[in-house]
Design goal:
CATH topology of the largest domain: Outer Surface Protein A, domain 3
Number of strands: 13
Oligomer: single chain
Order of helices and strands: HEEEEEEHEEEEEEHE
Distance between the termini: 58 Å
């Protein structure tokens, strides 16, 4: 039995939700999202809460809790949104946004240009900080992971791109 899936999802009045023919959609102040729900589940939408209910005997199905979490992320995304912050550590490492591209200078012989996805907004308040915001948690995480993959932080000096809340375990260098 899933403990997460039994909990209802609270919604506010400004969010419009609907469930028709296996497709759940939510519309809020930040945008609109929809997802196709497995046919083993139905979604009950009341005035201020949503419940994911299995059809038949599916008490041990792990997708029940996953479906509930995805719907909760959609509700949270269209109402509040999500943010991730990346930090660039290293001499000469800098980032800037120009149009629909993010320009990264990461110590390579060439600059890296990253195409910004449609649902993600990127801004650089400082040269070494990249702030990503979106209402779609999946696209936000994928964009942040792709940017981080260009220069992952290394354990000796800590140079590279890291999440702002990430701790880099430092190793001791060679001794003489």
């Amino acid at each position: 039995m899933s403990r997460i899936a039994k909990n209802p999802i609270k919604i506010s009045k400004e969010i419009e939700c609907s469930f028709k023919e296996g497709i759940f959609s939510a519309k809020g102040k930040l945008g609109q999202m929809q997802i196709s729900v497995n046919s083993n589940y139905k979604i009950n939408i009341d005035e201020n809460e949503i419940k994911v209910i299995p059809i038949g005997e599916i008490n041990n199905d792990p997708n029940w809790g996953t479906t509930r979490s995805i719907i909760a992320n959609i509700i949270n995304g269209v109402s509040n949104g999500f943010t991730k912050t990346l930090e660039l550590n290293g001499t000469g490492y800098r980032a800037s946004v120009s149009g629909s591209k993010l320009k990264l200078e990461l110590g390579y012989s060439h600059d890296i240009y990253f195409d910004i996805p449609n649902d993600v907004k990127i801004e650089c308040p400082k040269q070494n900080i990249i702030k990503l915001t979106s209402f779609n948690k999946e696209k936000l995480g994928a964009a942040a992971a792709k940017i981080r993959s260009y220069r992952k932080p290394e354990p000796f000096k800590g140079k590279g791109i890291k999440y702002s809340d990430e701790y880099i375990y430092r190793k001791e260098g060679k001794k003489k």
